[in-house]
Each structure stands twice: as structure tokens, then as C-alpha cells.
Design a protein that fits this description.
two-stranded antiparallel ribbon
């Protein structure tokens, strides 16, 4: 299963910094609020977005 989350959703859910680390991105980069990230099920569980 793949989970899609936007930058703004990640910020709202409080997982933005952890998401950036998963993707090797820098917090000082510019991101659009609707920029999307595709997570694996395991990554979504790790970020506590879903439970298994």
C-alpha cells in the first residue's frame, strides 16, 4: 500500500521534520503546501499516520 501526504498535511499532523528526514530533504528548502510525498506502508506506520 502507498500513502500520499502533502507538505501542508505533514505540517498539520506534526510529522514534517520526520518526513523530511525520511526523504533526505533539507528543512530550509522551499516547499509548496500541496507538494506530495509518497510513503510506503512501513513509513506511514513509522510516522504514526496509520496503524498496522
Amino acid at each position: 500500500m502507498k500513502i500520499v501526504i502533502s507538505a501542508s498535511e505533514a505540517m498539520e499532523k506534526g510529522v514534517w521534520i520526520e518526513l523530511l528526514k525520511l526523504f533526505g530533504r533539507d528543512k530550509d528548502e522551499d516547499f509548496l503546501p500541496n507538494e506530495e510525498f509518497i510513503l510506503t506502508e512501513e513509513q506511514a506506520v513509522q510516522l504514526k499516520l496509520i496503524t498496522k
